[in-house]
Amino acid sequence: MSRLMTAVACAALCLAASPARAQEDAEHAKDHAMVSRFPGYYISGSEAQEFGAHEFEVGDDKYQRVEGRYSRIDYALKDGIKVAGPVMIARNYANAVTKRGGATLHEAVDESGGVMSARFTAANTTLWLQVQIANRGEMYTLYIVEEATMAQKVEFTAAELGRALDERGSVALHGILFDTGTATVKAESAAALAPIGELLAGSPALKLEIQGHTDNVGAAAANLTLSQQRADAVKAYLVKTFGVAPARLTTAGFGDTKPVGDNRAEEGRAKNRRVELVKK
Predict the structure, then answer these.
(1) Low-confidence residues of the chain, pLDDT below 70?
(2) Please, are residues 142 and 72 in contact by the beta-carbon 8 Å criterion?
(3) Burial zone of 200 (CB within 10 Å; 0-12 exposed, 13-18 middle, 19+ buried)
(4) Alpha helices for the chain (secondary structure H)
(5) Which residues constitute the domain of residue 38?
(6) Each residue of 146-159: pLDDT tens digit?
């Protein structure tokens, strides 16, 4: 028996042993924005993580670990609703994926339950979906991972940043964040920008060029303009927040012309979306 089927069996026993079930969605629980529920079910539990991982079954006893934005949503059949059956539930999700241009990766479902895994692309993101069905279809769980690399939350200290600039001449930072298609510095970028301000304050002779880089999503000309605007926005932040003399900072935008990762995959695109500091 596969690991996932064992988990299904355990979950089914837990459900059977519980007293009367609630008929409303669990507090704060909701469907995934891109994947709806099968009619007649309510959410009995859920979990969401900004960055997590799940091992998707892609064959008999074959698994693939996928990392990114993670969601687990548990569904249970409402009282008085006729159960559709595991095969119908799994096939409905498989057909929905196919209609979006995706593909079923594995299906092992019978009248008692089972597992169906699939993958599709939406909004420039690859989504992995797994339907895990138990109790002859009275309960099922959706595992969804929007494939992505981890957002880097910890950046250089001022001392480390200065040492890296001395040794390499340039440093790429991924913790300076912007909303998609804009040059507005997000508030959560403060932790990545603080060491730059500290370094500049402690090294009065230091001059930097701030370079903006994007992935290749969108028109090249627009990306070029956006990268320049983002570099300018970082300069403006450092000048306003830390009192850095504007003459010490120059800016340049390169758009998608200097990739450091493969733009065909989200992992590569995430590497390409960056701000680089170059010692002058």
Answers:
(1) 1-22, 149-154
(2) yes
(3) buried
(4) 3-17, 86-99, 158-168, 190-202, 220-242, 266-272
(5) 3-147
(6) 987 656 566 789 99
